[in-house]
Amino acid sequence: MVRVIVLSLRRLALKIASYGLMHLVVAILVALAITRDWRLALAVGMIEPIFQTFAYTLHDRAWHLIERRRRLGGVEETAEAVAARLDVMDAVEQSRPHGHHGHSHGVPKSIAQIAVKSMTYGVMHLSVAITVAYVLTHDLRLALTIGLAEPLVQTGFFALHDRIWARIEARKRATPALVAANQDPITSRCA
Description:
7 helices; 0% strand; 84% helix; mainly alpha
């Protein structure tokens, strides 16, 4: 059980770290392209992603809760959330139909849902980027330019990052099911 918790926390930390690294590189490059000043680009690129990574973590957790609540209610929601986050459900349980919805584990299922999630991310990112750029530059025009361009570029990269992680999580859930489906019941009893 402890191993499962550690692996789940490790995956979450890796997802957040990969987002932070992606954000850092893109923020520096966008700020450098706009300002042509490497010191300001590094300042924006180093400080803004710290605030964005914190905001991203809140955004990701909020979307996870939204998805869970759409599909479950009450006590079952709590049990499902704990089991899913700790990865203690086996592949068969994860794929078990629940009413007519199934188990989503917070992964967006439709293009519209992915678009809404990306748009809410974009609004959040825009707000943080303009605020940080203004605090660093004290120039409203420059802050608006950086604050508008950088989140537009980052939103595209966010959608890509989110899709990559959704595929990783889906592949992780599918792998035990494939292994279980391919096991010979006679040899598995003997082992």
